Amino acid sequence: xxxxxxSIFAAIALSxxxxxxxxxxxxxxxxxxxxxxxxxxxxxxxYEVAIQNTTxxxxxxxxLQILDISDPSNPLFLGSYGKSGKFEDVAVVDTTAYFTNxxxxxxxxxxxxxNPADPILVGMHITPSSAQDVTVVGDYAYVADLDSGLLIIDISDPSxxxxxxxxxxxxxxxxxxxVGSLxxxxxxHFGLQIIDISIPTAPELISTYSYxxxxxxxAIHGSTAYLASNYDDIKMIDISNPEVPVNMGSFDTPxxxxxxxIHGTTxxxxxSRDGLQIYNVSDPADVEFIGSYETPGQxxxxxxxxxxxxxxxxxxLQIIDxxxxxxxxxxGAYQTPDQAFDLVVLGTTAYIADGxxGLQIIDISDSMAPSSFGSYATLDEAVSVAVNGDIAYxxxxxxxxxxxxxxxxxxxxxLGSYETPSRAIGLAVVGTTVYVADGSxxQIIDxxxxxAPSILxxxxxxxxxxxxxxxxxxxYVADGSxxxQIIDxxxxxxxxxxxxxxxxDYALSVEIIGTTxxxxxxxxGLQIIDISxxxxxxxxxxxxxxxxxxxGVxxxxxxxxxxxxxxGLQIIDISDSAAPFSLGFYDTDDxxxxxxxxxxxxxxxxxxxGLQIIDxxxxxxxxxxDLNGDGSLDFFDISSFISSYTFxxxxxxxxxxxxxDFFDISSFxxxxxxxxP
Length: 677
What we know:
The protein is mainly beta. About 5% of the residues lie in helices and about 50% in strands. It has 3 helices and 57 strands. A 7-stranded antiparallel beta sheet has the order 5-4-3-2-28-27-26, with no helix packed on it. It has a 4-stranded antiparallel beta sheet with strand order 6-7-8-9, with no helix packed on it. It has a 4-stranded antiparallel beta sheet with strand order 10-11-12-13, with no helix packed on it. The relative contact order is 0.08. The N terminus is likely disordered.
């Protein structure tokens, strides 16, 4: 490497280490899926965002954060106005920001933002209760003040805001929208309150639409009011005659709906733990779910600007491309009858071990619309499946090994079974031999005559045998609390121990590539182990993913795909086994147990959500240090890395451990030195 580059790298390391006064956590994806643009991690809890041109104003419990979003993939901090409290909403008009402090003594802050690097407090108004939401129209600020209802504040002189009128709603005022001379207030248990504000000093109630549920937010579009509810739904109300609001129907969201924004005929819902939910509301009688984006935390509010949605996601601002709101990374899904635990994909067919519903056979020729071929009801819970030719082998817990003829996928038929001594959990098939991990160890079964399978031999492992992988004459067992066990099966009647490696947590799955074993070790993540000397396996590296719950692993080339429980799919670059790093993730709907990858498509057995089909083509790994995407490595990529690191963008979390520290610098320098393929 040239001396001047070494000097630059040294300078990078020194500058970044000095900047890293404390460890900061990263959220989001390093490999950006098509609908993900970028994120910014706020100092505290993020509640609301307002957009003006290329600037984002974020209401955070640490105050007002001002961000340059001209490049959505790399939001840059401009300045902040901080004060202890609970800043929950922000409205921006020209060069003035109005934001609410929802603390015990609620107040409205008026801040001059003409110089974003140095916001200045202009005025403040103490409200009687807890200021939740603010809307500014002309010379008035309308504040939803929880127990005090609607407040009307004259801001014509921003240095001396004056309360000139109020209406004490019967419930707790959480949000307010202004249309013409009417205020629409989301009033918690008392639904929608419609108030005449034509005389600001004497507002009057026109009507109420109450349905006894917790209304958090309100959006007005045309003659329809949309109420976001804490009870997982959106109420639609016809307000063409505001004196007589009429119910138009409702639609359910997966979780409590915190906020809603309407753009044209599309509703964008900040749905707490289920992220951004997108619906077509062109026909209120038949609202259609379009797509969703699973944000890292709790989505609390949403606003849109053109084809971009900005979500205040608890501890971060998420910037999402909604030009195609159908969530491109997810190609399709098939809701199996029970709980999908394991799967095999062959050609255009998926075979799923689906718990109490047995073996499910799914046609995946159209990834967007998978459909059932047929099913086979196993004697007990189907938890693992292997396929060889026209025969499927199913691990059925208490029923042991079940053998199924799948030559006609529409009518699978029983061939034979073998009841193992313990609970059959995992299995592998080689020729006419099936190796069953049955909790107590491994059972080696001759299936040359499927109607009458017979035992060849067995080996009791020290832990709970959860799965087995066969390479040649060696079996590698993921043995729960005893880690990985390596068994010689060259003589199936007398298998013997070769070596073992006790992983830190609970081994559930193992994949072998050459002389390296990759173990899915639940809370300890992915364990990468050198097995070139199988008697004495050695740890190469341990890679812990955020919220680790790693249950399954599949290796394709230099990429590891991890079934990461409630955190879905994790994608890891393992081209350098000693320095793995994250390429991206996809948070599936339920608990990801196992993963199969064919080409650029990942298939996930996702428990109650069945089969999830995900496009993983958007995770390039060939030249990750080409951060500006110009096809070459130069100073501009270094500059991009410095900027990303300084502002804690996920692209700088090069080793994928969720932290920004020296190890990310080292990983970047190593990858940069290696150059582009």
